[in-house]
Amino acid sequence: MNFPCNQCGWCCQNLDKNKVYAALDRGDGTCKWFDIANKSCTIYESRPTICNIDAMHESYFSDLDYDEYIALNISVCQSVQIEHQLPLIQI
Ligand code: SF4
Ligand code: SF4
Asked: What top-level branch of life does the organism fall under (predicted)?
């Protein structure tokens, strides 16, 4: 299973909801590397590990079954989708 991101960009605009992203927050919850017009990460290829689902699994959560880990990430993503009234991404 791969993570089915629809690139809505809202996770990169809600960094204030988790302290681990504080260094990326420009002060209003949006990442300083986020391009709002294009809803994209301007440093995607070199983004921090905390922004990379597969790298996080490999480095910190490898004891979790990969599909279970992806499902947990999807549930968090869906809560963002609900908050912004977007169609839910599906497993
Ligand atoms: S909130 Fe979910 S679907 Fe939207 S960009 Fe982030 S990971 Fe992708
Ligand atoms: S570095 Fe890129 S992926 Fe990470 S929060 Fe910022 S814009 Fe999003």
From this structure: Bacteria
